[in-house]
Amino acid sequence: MQRARSGNVFDPRTGLPAAPRWDLVSVTSPSSALAEALSTAFCLMDRQGIELALAKAPQARLAGLKAQA
């Protein structure tokens, strides 16, 4: 029997593991807490949403984004 893979990002509406849009999201920032929060949120956002969020956090930079294969 195969076990279902469980992630560490959860859908706040259901409390269940969320299916990420991206295989890799990397954010840099002088604040590690901000980088962690943004990279986690970006896992579920489309590219336009990511760009809008980055515009509100000019100290953060998207260092890597890899689409799911």
From TrEMBL:
The keyword Lipoprotein applies. Pfam families: ApbE (PF02424). Keywords: Lipoprotein. InterPro entries: ApbE (IPR024932), ApbE-like_sf (IPR003374). Gene3D superfamilies: ApbE-like domains. This is Thiamine biosynthesis lipoprotein.
